[in-house]
Amino acid sequence: MNYSSLRHTSIFECCAKAEIESIENAIGLPVKRYKKDEIILHAGECVENICIVLSGSVRIDSNDIRGNRSILKIVKRGEVFAEAYACIPDVPLMVDAVANEPCEIVFLNVAKLFSLPESETKNKLLKNLVAISSKKNLHLSARILHTASKTIRGRVLSYLSQEATKQNSRFITIPFNRQQMADYLSVERSALSKELGKMKADGLIDYHKSTFKLTL
Amino acid sequence: MNYSSLRHTSIFECCAKAEIESIENAIGLPVKRYKKDEIILHAGECVENICIVLSGSVRIDSNDIRGNRSILKIVKRGEVFAEAYACIPDVPLMVDAVANEPCEIVFLNVAKLFSLPESETKNKLLKNLVAISSKKNLHLSARILHTASKTIRGRVLSYLSQEATKQNSRFITIPFNRQQMADYLSVERSALSKELGKMKADGLIDYHKSTFKLTL
DNA sequence: CTCCTTTCGTGGTTATAACAACATAAATTT
DNA sequence: AAATTTATGTTGTTATAACCACGAAAGGAG
């Protein structure tokens, strides 16, 4: 097992090598390698493992009934996925998890983790798990908030305002290009470009690429 | 303290009276009463307590920059709110929590809970916390999925399909009236009514009030 | 530097949803 | 049961965003 990589994952944060070993001995930490585009988890199946991305990256695909694929999320090295499903038994996956590039995934069985005798290490893991889940919660809630407005302008303002608050500045840099920003706000790219242009003309914002200025 | 009510909350699920008492002795479980429409948590403040609804109900309000109020959620008796914020220190609330009717709220300090020595009871609470958070996660993800489509029809189908899967039947009852369904899908009520009518005409669905039939 | 690819903005067209106003039906109150 | 309120459906109008096609700009690779 590659402990140095594992130590830098969100779920094993603040764990020493010995602690990870003790977990491995107690409940096992199987690793699996996947080729690019290989499916790691299929929609419909039930999972009982938290999946940890040791290397490479994974994309979470939503495939609605009529074959409309859309990428919900890219899970990067050190991050985890499927943890919510793993913590709620018997709920079938709504999405696919696919290797976005060659990757190694470590599987952590949650039920076994829970049934472990109390220990400092177990406690750390649970704490980390709560933090991961809570953070994701806040992100999901924020996105819902930002896509609540019926107009593109409203969505953009909602999103940029929050970013401005977070970054504590009216000059903000967002982690998206136009297409990604459009996807995040659930609008069409060119329509977003158009609206951003109008907002600039109206003196609401200024921008260049992914840097924006809110002219309050 | 009203232990019998507390025992039936999601966070204290499966805890005996003695266990709750031990938690109360160790970290305290202050209770506060609120009048209808009294603000329990203000947007902008940071919270460190999980808030437990002992009686009454609480509504989570989003007030965007331009005074557009919208009800994000009603938290009922036995449920908790603000838990995600409480688990991630120093993140300011994006929403208000307001007493929807006279209510009693119990406050559970997460940091204190985490720093408690390991015990069976602490373990139960953490497990419950993970379950609560994970469940909420799945709900939020589902909602994002359902509002991803750009058309009302797509959103309705996405939502109803999942409900059909969950309820394991093509006859489904949803927990919403039209207005609530429209809010959930982020569309306008009358537009939703219109589209539902069209979908019925197109033979896709049948419905009466809040019961639907997917004609696959 | 040139070629190629990707990203971004623009214009025009069309589909769609928001909005407003009203009608009908259902539920609640008295 | 009548009256009031609330929920739902309907119609028409208008604003808006999706969609399509294109061109310009930026970024990378050879």
> Distance N terminus to C terminus of chain A?
53 Å
| Mean pLDDT level of chain A | 92
| Total beta strand runs of chain A | 11
Low-confidence segments of chain A: none
Strand content of chain A: 15-25%
Largest interface: A-B, 50 and 50 residues
Rg of chain A, Å, rounded: 20 Å
Order of helices and strands of chain A: HHEEEEEEHEEHHHEHHEE
The main sheet of chain A comes to:
4 strands, antiparallel
What's the shape of chain A?
Answer: elongated
Name the structural class of chain A: alpha+beta
Helix content of chain A: 40-55%
Q: Helix segment count of chain A?
A: 8
The quaternary state of the protein chains shown equals homodimer
- Walk across the major sheet of chain A and give the strand order: 1-8-3-6
